[in-house]
Amino acid sequence: MAIRKSVLLRLYPQDFGWEQKRRWLDVYPDLQIDEGQQDIRTLIGKSRLYISTYNATTYLESLTWDIPTIMFWNPAHWELNDEAQPYFDLLKSAGLFHETPESAAKQMAAVWDDVEGWWQSPRVQSARQMFCEQYARTPKHPLAELGGLFKALSTKEVAAG
Question: What is the value of pTM for the model shown?
């Protein structure tokens, strides 16, 4: 399959005795593997499509960097709180979030020939932007915004004191 030849699997840097590299290569001998040593930002930046397989900061970074991203994990293992659920439902409806590897793989195959067209579509960008505004907002002037928050807090403390 043409897509498989383009896949780079990045393992967690510590194996914990699981022998992941050997196990992956037993099934897919031609699979390209990074053992978690290369800089993640560089790898994601060079990717046509980034796939995140668990609930961690990497997908937040790829979404804020506007890198085409597909995420999947089993919600029974990585629970979402009730407040977050509508935002993940929004990502799911745009094809960014999936609850099974099979669903994520189907999405990857569906968009592979035009990843950029899918990613730049209004539906995907709107979902990405709404999610990032809630969970991964990156202000244009973070220090000024932080200073304003501190000032507002100190004013409230003085008024309350």
Answer: 0.83
